[in-house]
Amino acid sequence: MRHYLVKKEVRLEMAERVIMSWSCGKDSALALHEIQKNDLYSIQALLTTVSGEYERVSMHGVRRELLRRQASSLGMPSREIVLSPNPSNREYESLMREALEGFRDEGVSAVVFGDIYLRDVRRYREENMQEVGMRCLFPLWGRPSSSLAHDFIRLGFKAVITCVDSDLLDGDFAGRHFDERLLSELPPGVDPGGENGEFHTFVFDGPPFKEAVNFRRGEVVLRDGRFYFCDLIPARV
Questions:
Q1: Which ranges of 36-179 would DSSP assign to H, the alpha helix?
Q2: Which residues of 112-132 are buried (b: 16+ CB within 10 A; e: fewer)?
Q3: Which of 49, 59, 188, 192 has the fewest CB atoms within 10 Å, counting from its CB?
């Protein structure tokens, strides 16, 4: 037993130091699950962009408190990049570059992403990482979106839809749990994983979590005449 533990410690010391691009949603959670299956990588932190004015995760609309509770349940440090309400690409790229250079100087060599098949997004990420001397890891790349959606549920992950683009999907889906019933009710042409921006999610339980992140559902509001956000209110600890 002692020999096994020593060998495991050596493998962990030799593992590549990486960070996780963390949206708080299901693709990030699945990518994390995949990358943790072996000892090749050591995840140093979850990196998330948040709106400083609204105190919420960008696009997903999840409160920072829930993001931090997620990270705590996963047993990982949370690093946040704070953006203005409507950040330009220049602002986003500048702040992201500053954060990544800091990680690089700490010995981190790669960033893990949950992208599946959008080649222009992958190319954009790879070009930005190359500029700071880091590389990208895409553990879910090329796998069918439908299969990943069903695998997510089968593995025991639990998530709720927090944002819906009403140009692509009915706003009534906001606030619903991401389960088999929801998948069966998605209209034709809607990606089962929301890969084209149809919807975004918040994962509150699953294999990597030590305990569920508890919340109660708040109101659903329409922003910019297009996006329906379901507020998730942290449960009292």
A1: 64-74, 89-105, 119-131, 145-154
A2: bbbbbbeeeebeebeebbeeb
A3: 188
> What single letter denotes the amino acid at residue 31?
A
Say if CB 77 and CB 102 are below 8 A apart. no
CA distance 203 to 189: 24
Neighbours of 42 (CB within 10 A): 17
DSSP letter (8 states) at residue 45: E
Sign of the Cα torsion 119, 26, 173, 188 reads: positive
Q: Which residue has the tokens 């919340």?
A: 215
CA dihedral 135, 141, 145, 146 (to 10 degrees): -130
Q: Are the beta carbons of 174 and 223 closer than 8 angstroms?
A: no
* Pairing of β 16-21 and β 110-112: parallel
CA angle 97, 101, 106 (to 5 degrees): 150
pLDDT tens digit sequence for 144-170: 999 999 999 999 999 999 999 999 999
Helix then strand count (H, E) for the chain reads 7, 10
Beta carbons of 79 and 72 less than 8 angstroms apart = no
What is the Cα–Cα distance from 28 to 77, expressed in whole angstroms?
A: 15
Buried b (16+ CB within 10 A) or exposed e, 193-212: bbbebbbbbbbbbbeebeee
Distance CA 112, CA 108 (A): 11
How many angstroms separate the CA atoms of 218 and 85, rounded?
Answer: 22
